[in-house]
Amino acid sequence: MTTLRPFKADDLWAFNRVNLDPLTETYHMTFYLQYMYTWPEYFTVAESAAGTLMAYVMGKAEGVGENWHGHVSALTVAPEYRRLGLGKQLMADLEDISEHRHHGYFVDLFVRKSNDVAVELYRGLGYEIYRTVIEYYSGANSEDAYDMRKSLSRDPEKRLMQPTGKRIQPYELEND
Amino acid sequence: MAAMHQQHPRDKRVAKIHEAIRLGNFSQGLTLSQQTLKKDPGNKHALAFKALSLRCLGKHSECEEILAQFTDEDIHVDHVRVLEQCYLEVDDSENVLRLFRVLAEKMPKDEEMQIQYFMRLSIWRQHKLAQAQATNLFKLFKKQQFQDWAIMSLYLQTLDEKTLALYCMVLDATAQPKALLELLDRDTRAELGNGQLLPRGRDRVGKLMAALKGSQQHAQLNAVAQENLAALPDDWVSYLHYLDSAFALAEPAASAGDATDDTADEASYHSSEFKPHTQFADVQAHLEKLARQEFAKSGPCRGPFLALLEFHQRRGNPWTDVEPVLEQYLEKFGSKLCCFPDLQSYLDRLLDSGHTAQFLATVASSLQAAEARQESSVKLALRRGQERMFQRYCSSLASTEEQFSSLTAEYIETLPLGADLQSTELQYADTFALLAAHVALDLFAAQVSYTSTLAGEHTTLLRAVHLLEFALTKSSASSQLRLCLVRIYLLLGAGASALTHWRMLDIKSIQHDSIGYLMLETLPRIGGCEQALGLANEGLRFLSGAEASAQEALTRAFQHNTFPMIEEFYHMLHKLSKSTMATSSTCDALRIHFMTNAKTLTEMQSGFDLVVEDMPSDEVLASNGLADNRQFEVMDDFVRSTRSVDAAYVKELNARYLRFRCRLLRVLERTVDDNVDNFAEDMTALVADLAQVDQHQASLAAAATSEFVYPFTAVYDMPESGCKGDALTELVSRVGDAARALSQGYEAVAKQLNQRLAALEAATLPSSADLEVAVDSAEILASYRLIVLRILKRLELPESVPKPRRKTVTAVREAVTTAIATTVDLLVELRDKAANINKTWLSTRSEQTFEVQLPGLTEGPQWQTSMIRAIYASIHNICNAQVGYAAVTGSKKSSRVNDCHQRARAKIGLRDINDCPVAVSGARGGFSQLIFLKTALGPFIFALSL
């Protein structure tokens, strides 16, 4: 019993059960607001019958040419609602939007190298480790990130998701 | 097939070709055009007809070859329509527009050609270019008509996805569901633009269902909901629409007041595949079918089961109908953590109808069935955890020590099952530790009264601390365990430790506003003034920055045409600018500054000046214009009565208190400035505010029973765990760690108090706050002794405990005893010193006299005492909460004051008037004002913080 609906500004005051997870970053307001006014279709929340926020995904469309793609900025599920396929459902929603509304070539995301559970989840959804971004996560727990990709129908040969084995610096992402 | 709409060609040969094609004889047209071209290879008109003949005969590649021969130079007005027809046959608008653009450029003064180009642009929805072309026409030919065309093109430019979304929003907001349905229908038929403009998918279906519901088209709504559920069997919104519409159809009498409009059943929305269910039997059968389908699958779709429960509850069906659904749900999802929150909403109604025993029996039998099926140990453990939650939620019995022990044992027993889990994952055993901690909190609440000091019952609470600290070493990602620990530390007065764990939760940004209250409301009351001030300032900084961000976002939303967000951002701005957290933090900041730093009137005045400016205006306060953004449901204690507390009611209560606190600050500000012109009116308003709060007295008292305030500052830091070995040994070791830490904490407090007392001795006139410290020291000593005894008792193990473990425990015990000895000495010294200071100070005040009267009742000699009298009388009237250390005393008191305080003492349980330090002197002057204000403001706001 899930209701997928657009993320509302009010949800920011109600997402604590989801965001208190240590692997879920609580960003500054500007970040959330930017997603809400620029890519509202990409900011989706899963709500329970009782109105509790169970999970959410936020993403965007970016890149040029063949690099035009959907990007997963955050995907998180509250502990009580894990192992129910919510992550898969939200990812499918984001992929659908990337494919049919933005006509992207692929969807990509970054994940902590140490987060085996998440890496396996994304592999199960068809994502491949395209490359590694060195120390993408900064701060006290600085760590490398995997840049994982999944091609959409505009890349039928799945050429754009083929693992490159490259290790790049974060600033090189800006050249994409 | 292609139809020609052009003038007959003047060239006779070409005219023949044209005629043949007009009559649909394309082969003949091809032959004639080839013959003409043979004789006249440069005849572009014939070449164009040849291309068209080929196109109409399906020979597209040959046609394209010919079309490719037409350069911009070759395009001519005579054959442009033939070429256009070639392109139109394959919907090649790009080349059609190219043809007319080229001709328009070639013939800039030809009005007809310019108009033709405009028309093509409009036909192909190139509204921006069309607007430019219309403007060009107006410039060239000065006809008003062309300007109108430009305006129309401008209007048409706005008709895109975002415009339609805005239109949908307006229709929705103005309750025009039929217009919305019509709009969706037109968009479906691509009548509004180039194809469908509104996005497909759930947004569209959601709009459709809402519009159908709004226009009372229940039959269509039912069919659409069924169709959606066939594709998305877990979509809860569709279930709700399905049930709402089915009930409206099956119970026409119940919805007789609504003008049902199902006349449009044959409209395009009505799916022929899904017939509306108009009978309850059909609805139940349909939901049961969906449930059967999902039960057979391995997927996690809970929708049909919960929809069936919803259906039975709406119908008021008997337990015999509900039970099989519960059995199915429990079998499939009983080992999932979502089980409890999923069923929680239904439980309330089940329990109200007296089916508690049956429900718990169903849960138990489900567990037994799972055991019989030999489910994995992990799943069985998770099922037991859910069962324990249900037992706690359904039980009306009080929590017991046995429950705590049993849950702790289950925790220890289950823990090994999660040995292979990664550090970022939650342990399967967490539920038991969390439940045990909540049982400990229940026991604490039951044993400790408001007037208790630390001499209350703490044993179980301390055991809960040990358990949670230990559990967090195994499951560091569990925010629920950590939040519970923070709560217990705050109850114990261990602000530093609470803050440490709070910091580990990484609370920031918007969380300051939504859950910052969990710390802010208690931390200052247990002595963590500076830390609370730090947190309050973080929150205020966030609000200030967030407001600017929201304003920026508002303008950006306009720029991006993200219309639905604009209203939300306005609402967000209100929530941020009127946050009660800001107002409350401002009051707290002043209070904290007041209690800790302000020693002179000048300091106080500057503090007031800074703070009062930031407070909401009287108008905002009076109109309840504040926004209480607290999220209450962030911590679940699995108790039904907690859920029954209406969040809106609590927020209203908070708003009333806040209003009073702000008004009090304003009154005090004026008082400090000796501006007492409107004193009587101010006091009347204050009393009126309090009277409003008084209306909520019963609820306040109920809420207050879960609040305990301990007037000491403890540094209860737990050292990092280096414990090895089995879980029980680790746990025992933790007790030792805790005892040592507690001892260190008390010692630190004692030293801190000692320093303050030393300063106090040297001072000529001690302040009331310092005297409060003196009183605290005696209580701290008593409570510390009690806790130490209990910890030591816990470390006494029976002879049966094996040697290695005994050795560990003995070592811990010795370390604790050593630490205690030093601390006790220090505390005894401290207590005696404090008692002497208190006595000395009291003797210096013995000759002071004052009267306390309510304004308007009697003329009082001092306005200060009148005010205090009013405040204390109000306190006395409204609350069972402790008044803290505040009291008014003196060697010569009027009978009125005595009477007031006798009643107050009786109510708040103060043992003796001398428990409270003298706080007021009757003499007017700087010091008396200082004392008066500290007394009036400090305890009052201090103790009444919700």
UniProtKB/TrEMBL annotation, chain A:
<keyword id="KW-0012">Acyltransferase</keyword>
<dbReference type="InterPro" id="IPR000182">
    <property type="entry name" value="GNAT_dom"/>
</dbReference>
<dbReference type="InterPro" id="IPR051646">
    <property type="entry name" value="NatB_acetyltransferase_subunit"/>
</dbReference>
<dbReference type="GO" id="GO:0032956">
    <property type="term" value="P:regulation of actin cytoskeleton organization"/>
</dbReference>
<dbReference type="GO" id="GO:0004596">
    <property type="term" value="F:protein-N-terminal amino-acid acetyltransferase activity"/>
</dbReference>
<feature type="region of interest" description="Disordered">
    <location>
        <begin position="152"/>
        <end position="176"/>
    </location>
</feature>
<dbReference type="InterPro" id="IPR016181">
    <property type="entry name" value="Acyl_CoA_acyltransferase"/>
</dbReference>
<protein>
    <recommendedName>
        <fullName>N-acetyltransferase domain-containing protein</fullName>
    </recommendedName>
</protein>
<feature type="domain" description="N-acetyltransferase">
    <location>
        <begin position="2"/>
        <end position="153"/>
    </location>
</feature>
<keyword id="KW-0808">Transferase</keyword>
<dbReference type="Pfam" id="PF00583">
    <property type="entry name" value="Acetyltransf_1"/>
</dbReference>
<dbReference type="GO" id="GO:0031416">
    <property type="term" value="C:NatB complex"/>
</dbReference>
